[in-house]
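Tutorial handout. Part one gives the primary structure; part two gives the three-dimensional structure as tokens.
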Amino acid sequence: MKVSITTGSITATTSRVQAIATPINGTGGWYGAIDNAIYEIADEYYHQVPRQRLEAVGLNHGEVIVVKRTPDFTHRGNFDDVIFVVDRLRSPLNEVVYAALAAAKQVGYKSIAMPVMRTGRMAGRVEKSYEEVIRQIKLGFDRIMAEGNWDVEIQIVVYNDPETKRMLEEVFA
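Part two.
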């Protein structure tokens, strides 16, 4: 596993990735920064699948929904698919990170990007500090690696926060 820390918008990461892995709430109120960035690039394309599932049977905490881009759908983003993990803030972040990584590994992705989760609007709701968020992200990574080697490049994308980027670089050095 190769991990790099990048900055900017997750939909325009420095190099193309096969998928973005991101949490999504279970209520359909998808107006956070990552959701907005995905909407900007692809309108409802990626969110329509979890929305249909929400309306049909609901969304459960920890559930993973992989939405693949079909060959006939184009957008200007630097990604193809989206891995949504339903996060109702009921468990430590490492479980959400692990669920995203396990799904990516199962699908066979070789490159993914993920945001620094549970920051912004979700900051402090479960993990009380950015240091704890970073520790939880690392625990999720460690857990997937304990299951065996995985040839993947993962970009952790930090949006406009040099201190968080520095802390991540220290942890993932």
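Part three, for discussion. The domain at 2-171 is CATH 3.40.220.10 (Leucine Aminopeptidase, subunit E; domain 1). Strands lie at 2-7, 17-24, 64-67, 79-86, 111-115, 153-158.
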